[in-house]
Amino acid sequence: MPPTSPISRLLLALSLALLATAASARVCVDDDADRRVCLEQPARRIVALSPGATELLYDAGAGERLVGAVSFSDFPPEAKALPRVGSYKRLDLEAILALQPDLVVAWVSGNPAAQVERLENLGLTVYRGEPRRFAGVADTLERLAVLAGTKQAGAAAAARFRDGIAELRQRFADADPVTVFYEVWEEPLMTVNGEHLISEAIRTCGGVNVFADLPGLAPRIGTEAVIAADPEAIVAGGMGENNPAWLTPWKRFRALTAVQRDNLFFVPPSTLQRPTPQMLAGTRLLCDHLERARARR
């Protein structure tokens, strides 16, 4: 059959069309570790290695593609039914491999780096995420949606988050500053520095993180440091969504401005301590708390 025959030309055209289709199905994004992450087609089996990653994937419209998650992945409620692959601190590599994921979403500073690297060495595609700013939360929603083939849902979720944060920034742009100590953990006593995403929430509400200049995202501190800083408001997460017990010990320090003015505020930890769209609700609550602090001057 001559190479210029109609049948040859038809076969060549079909081959080129198939190659073009395959190329168009390929999806790529850059992750938070400055790595290019590519899939030959949108992911259909995804494992999330942090509770925050689980939430982000659901918000990006990829919940139906999740086949595994780590412990404490409890939002939205349907995430509780996902098979567990260990905790974010200690991954169960065998369980992850058994699920045959075509995409693994890891947490840069939270997951054991050696275990994540091991997953890559075993041939899995890994997206490393760690939003450090509100803009990064929205960007992550869009990137995960690209990898999962749910771009429309991801774009909509990102837009809602950006719009909500922009509204809060505008509302509190000229608010009087309130000095804030945010307690991220009780024993050992830990807070967040100015680079942490929670600090952006504090700034959005017109607050000033009294420990913004400390090194490390979540530095350990002593009670004496809090007393010396004398914040106008103390905000805590806690061990549960409705458990403000971490605030009680501060009441014995009656010289603290926050105690004198009853500015001891609780914010459910899932709404501020996970880099997800839930931070919009957490930041709104935080802003309401700081408004109360202003009114009590």
UniProtKB/TrEMBL annotation:
Keyword flag Signal: yes
Keyword tags: Signal
Pfam families hit by this protein: Peripla_BP_2 (PF01497)
Gene3D superfamilies, alphabetized: Nitrogenase molybdenum iron protein domain (3.40.50.1980)
Domain Fe/B12 periplasmic-binding per the UniProt entry, residue ranges: 45-297
Top-rank lineage group of the source organism: Bacteria
Keyword presence, Signal: yes
Signal sequence range: 1-25
Record GO biological process: cellular response to iron ion
Cross-referenced NCBIfam families: TroA_like
Descriptive protein name: Cobalamin-binding protein
Organism, as annotated: Alloalcanivorax marinus
